[in-house]
Amino acid sequence: MKMRKAHNIPDTTELKEVFDTEIATVYFYDNIVIVEAVEGITLSYKTGFSLLVKGLKYLGNRPWIYISNRVHSYSVNPNDYKYLDQVPTLKGIAVVNHTESGRKNAQLEASFCKKPFKVFDDLTEAYHWGKEFL
Description:
Elements: E1 17-20, E2 24-29, E3 32-37, E4 42-43, H1 45-59, E5 64-69, E6 75-76, H2 81-84, E7 90-96, H3 100-110, E8 117-120, H4 123-133
Parallel strand pairs: 3-5, 4-6, 5-7, 7-8
Antiparallel strand pairs: 1-2, 2-3
């Protein structure tokens, strides 16, 4: 059964899977993973570990790009990027922010991450960057 896309991504890639949890909704478009965290949550290694494990089991050994689509306001522990740096199949991180302060915060977060990390204003641009990067 073909799933309906949750995002306006101008591509033929179909939405393969959705994980809906208490901390985030995670959308799998082949090897592009879009995460939308819940309003007010603190997203960290501790709160997100089980979700990361579930996602890695789903993805297997395929290379993938993580896109944080920040449609809600929440906190991130930037020190925890060191754990994502240890995931060999994760090839890059994109953060989509819709406010100037959000963009500045994401640019600061980038300094904590060793993986390719790019900040975008638009989800479609982030998605295309991810596809090209892979």
